[in-house]
Amino acid sequence: MTDPPAPSGERRAALVTGASSGIGRAIAADLLATGWGVTAVARDPERGALSGAHQVPTNVVDEGSCIAAVASHVARFDRLDLLVNAAGVGFGGPFEQASTRSFDLQFAVNVRGLFLVCRSAIPHLRASRGLVVNVASITGVAPQPGLAVYGATKHAVRGLSGAMQAELRDAGVRVTTLCPGFVDTPMTDFVKGEVPGDEMIRPADCVAAVRFLLALSPACRIPEIVIDGPTIPDLARSSAVG
Ligand SMILES: NC(=O)c1ccc[n+]([C@@H]2O[C@H](COP(=O)([O-])OP(=O)(O)OC[C@H]3O[C@@H](n4cnc5c(N)ncnc54)[C@H](OP(=O)(O)O)[C@@H]3O)[C@@H](O)[C@H]2O)c1
Q1: Summary mean pLDDT of the chain
Q2: Domain presence at residue 203
Q3: CA 166 – CA 135 distance, rounded (Å)
Q4: Is residue 4 part of a domain?
Q5: CA of 10 to the centre of ligand 1 (A)
Q6: Is residue 239 situated within a structural domain?
Q7: Which of 50, 89, 133, 182 is the best mutation target for the ligand 1 pocket, counting ligand atoms within 8 Å of the beta carbon and taking the most?
Q8: Which residue's CA lies nearest to atom 16 of ligand 1?
Q9: pTM of the predicted model, to two decimals?
Q10: C-alpha angle 184/88/196, rounded to 5°?
């Protein structure tokens, strides 16, 4: 399936964070395969290098790096029709053993980094009446034992995304939060002894969700897509902590 070109006939362009691995990489690869211009953002995009992508090494913990990534995208493509924020980190384990360092890192990447990229992208999304897909998690919908801090970051992503949608709806910008359960990516390797990868949601399912959003007419607003997956083990008791 080839997506239609932008109304002007130009190639549509997307910026995808977390494009070196897992969900972000799968979405970026699908966009490239369907004719989009894609900026692939990760600390080391060469790790999962995608042929044809505009690779921009970016650490989303760094404000200047986030601003530079969006600027680099716009310099390359001159338009931003789709922003996918998939960069993320997650660590499981009992609440009382969660370190302050791990708390700070998860919030820095999952919340602050997403905020910084969104904030820089908004003027360009206004111009294109574009779409934002922020990847949260089922743990941002239903609290899970052993994923307190990670889940809190994903609740925050839902909060930011909802407010962004409310502020930008009159500008024609749509914002969807994608909330999957366990997806078979490197992030869930630590738990695959308890939940086999082939019983998890697939990155291709997240790709299908983005395709679905892109296929809708601009009047359709989908605040949230929740993909419930396999039962999540109690990671506060489990020996599998990531
Ligand atoms: N897998 C799941 O079960 C699951 C379920 C629900 C939601 N999610 C969410 O989905 C998103 C993607 O996860 P995934 O499963 O695809 O994980 P993954 O395979 O580990 O990929 C994580 C991506 O985030 C990037 N990243 C991490 N720290 C970064 C930083 N400081 N700056 C820039 N990029 C950074 C990584 O790139 P580099 O390391 O190359 O920088 C990588 O591309 C995350 O937000 C995750 O929380 C995952």
Answers
A1: 94
A2: yes
A3: 18
A4: no
A5: 30
A6: no
A7: 89
A8: 22
A9: 0.96
A10: 15
Domain with residue 197: its CATH number is: 3.40.50.720
> How far is ligand 1, taken at its centre, from the CA of residue 34, in Å?
23
CA distance 176 to 38: 19
Band of pLDDT at residue 241, cut at 50, 70 and 90: low
The band of 46, judged by pLDDT with boundaries at 50, 70 and 90, is confident
- Distance (Å) from CA 9 to ligand 1 centroid: 33
**Is the CB of 105 inside a 6 Å radius of any atom of ligand 1?**
no
Closest CA to 129 of 223, 220, 40: 220
Task: Give a yes or no: residue 84 inside a domain.
Answer: yes
pLDDT in tens, 192-208: 999 999 999 999 999 99
In the chain, the N- to C-terminal Cα span, in Å, equals: 37
- Burial environment of residue 100 by CB neighbours within 10 A (0 to 12, 13 to 18, 19 or more): exposed
**Nearest atom (ligand 1) to Cα of 45:** 40
How many domains does one find in the chain?
A: 1
Q: Is 156 touching ligand 1 by the criterion CB < 6 Å?
A: no
Domain that holds residue 54: 13-227
> Catalytic pick from 36, 77, 91, 150?
150
**150 in catalytic set:** yes
How does residue 110 score in pLDDT terms, banded at 50, 70 and 90?
very high
Residues present in the chain in total: 242
CA of 185 from ligand 1 middle (Å) equals 9
